Amino acid sequence: xxRIRVFLDSNVIANWxxxxxxxxxRNTLEEDRILLERFREYSLSHVLTQSFIENNDVYxxxxxxxxxxEVFNVLRKEVSGLKVYRHGFPIVSMFKHLDKALSRDExxxxxxxxxxxxxxxxxxxxxxxxxxxxxxxxxxxxxxGVKTHDALLISTACVNDCDWFITNDRDxxxxxxxxxxxxxLEIDLPESFLKEIS
Length: 198
Fold this sequence. Notes:
alpha/beta, five-stranded parallel beta sheet, 11 helices, about 65% helix, globular
C-alpha cells in the first residue's frame, strides 16, 4: 500500500514548534491567557504533526527549503507580536514595535529552537525537498493571486507528486479551492485533513 504524500507549509511547522517549546513550561502557559488562547488556534497543527511523527509508515511527509526558511520568520513575527501585545502597546502603533521587540538573545533562542525542532522532525521522517518551479503550475497559481513564495511551495508539492498541501493560510486555500483537479493536489487546513483521515 502506498503512503499518503503530504506537504507541510511553514505555518503548520511553526505552530507545532510553538506548542512543543512552550508545553515544556506548562505552568507559565496555564497562567498566560493570551498565550493559551493563541495555542488553542495552533492545536490542530500540533495534533496533525504529532500524528505524522507517530505514523510515519502511513504518511510520507515533506516540506521544502523555502518553507523551512519561512519558519524562522513566522516564529519571529509571532513571538514579537505576543511580546508587544503583552507590553500593552496600542494596536495602531504595535506594528512599528515588532521589529525591535526581541533582544539579540531572544532572536538567537528562536534560531536554535527552530534548528532543533526541524532536526526532530527530520529524524521522525520529514523530508526536505529542493524547491522546484513547475512551468505550468507556478504561473497558473500566481495568476490566481497567490503570493510568489506560496506558489513556489505549491509548485514544489506538485512536482513531487504530493497528495495534500496542509496550511493554515485560509486565503491560499480560498484562492485555490476549485483547482484541485488541475493541480492534482488537495490544499486544506490541518483540521480538514484530520477529518478526512479519521
